[in-house]
Amino acid sequence: MNTTSAPASRQVSWTGRIVSGLVIAFLVMDAVMKLIAVPPVMDSMRELGFVSTVGLARGLGGLLLVCTALYAFPKTSAFGAILLTGFLGGTMAIHVRAGNPLFSHVLFGAYLAVMLWVGLLLRDRNLRAALVPTR
């Protein structure tokens, strides 16, 4: 292995871990808020057109927590990223249907999904080699 590529590779990997860690922290916080069913979550669900029940909030929180856990562990991270991308796409569709502002609400799921994939691609050399063509 070339000695000049080792530090760069290590930096890229750590950058990916940090970006992924930020995404994971945000998603875990969101999942826990849904599992606890705090009043702002229940109010937001109502505003978005859901029948605001504790069971639904906990179900969404549990689903989000499972998908985030799959993303957090290296062996299942690609599968977790795919599931989270679908979850975030659903949130975007809900915000479109609710008529929320584009850049602050609708596209927030896209911003998070981009960070999620950037973090994963930076921390996983094999996935990066498979998905990102070089030369």
Key terms:
7 helices; mainly alpha; 135 residues; 0% strand; elongated; single chain
Describe the fold and architecture.
- The structure is a single chain.
- This protein has one domain (11-123).
- The protein starts with a helix and ends with a helix.
- The protein has 135 residues and is an all-alpha fold.
- Helices cover 81% and strands 0% of the residues.
- Helix 1 packs antiparallel against helix 3 (54-72) and helix 1 packs across helix 6.
- The chain is elongated.
- What is the distance, rounded to the nearest whole angstrom, between the alpha carbons of the first and last residues? 19 Å
Task: Please indicate the percent range of residues in DSSP E strands (runs of 2 or more).
Answer: under 5%
How many domains make up the coordinates? Answer: 1
What are the low-pLDDT stretches, counting only 5+ consecutive residues below 50? none
Q: Percent of residues in helical segments?
A: over 70%
Mean pLDDT, to the nearest integer, reads: 92
The oligomerization state is: single chain
Main sheet record: none
Q: Report the principal-axis shape.
A: elongated
Number of strands: 0
- Using only CA atoms, what is the Rg? 17 Å
**H-E string:** HHHHHHH
Number of helical segments? 7
Structural classification: mainly alpha
Summarize the structure.
By secondary structure, the protein is mainly α. It is 81% helix and 0% strand.
